[in-house]
Amino acid sequence: MKLIASLTSPFARKIRVILIEKQLDFELHESIPWDANTDVVNYNPLGKVPALEHDGKVWTDSAVIADYLEILEPNFALLPEAKLAAIEVKQVEALADGICEAAIAIFLERKRPSEIQDGSWVQRQQGKLDRGLGALNEMTQGKSFICFDQYSLADIAAVCLLEWLSFRMPEYDWELSFQDLAAYAKAVGSREAFKLTRPC
Ligand SMILES: N[C@@H](CCC(=O)N[C@@H](CS)C(=O)NCC(=O)O)C(=O)O
Question: Over the stretch 17-33, which tens digit does the pLDDT of each residue have?
């Protein structure tokens, strides 16, 4: 099994955490999608990481890959068996991924020369970020895990997002504004799978 990933991608990190939690062996094929000589397009026509090659097929998009791995290795389940409960977990994953996309859009916009940056675009994305973290903060108040008192894909997606924010947008002090979320993320982030994949 080959994972095509960059070491700083929060979406690719979700998959690295899942592979470690499920004790699945994999070869890490590092590829940075923004590099001129990237080979990511050989695996994903969208030119995005992560992609997972296994058994002659290539799976793309972290949510799809997460579903695939859940079927491939049901041990150490990251989704509840009941279908509706599983959708609840996937809903939180979609929220975390959506917040991440908004944050990355801001990060990329800020890399452009300041005179051509679009302030109203950044503001729109910032709204998604603030409201999204507010929602996650409510979901984690006084809780160890987001869904059903159980570690799940929802927690993996949320913590990969939150740690990416601390890594790439340190000026956005989300830990101060969302203290329940910060305490939750610190606890979940102490798991070995997060320590082994933390971007530095
Ligand atoms: N929805 C996708 C998002 C993946 C994504 O945006 N990955 C970024 C790296 S963090 C990427 O490869 N960007 C390259 C590009 O957009 O061209 C997923 O969950 O896998």
Answer: 999 999 999 999 999 99
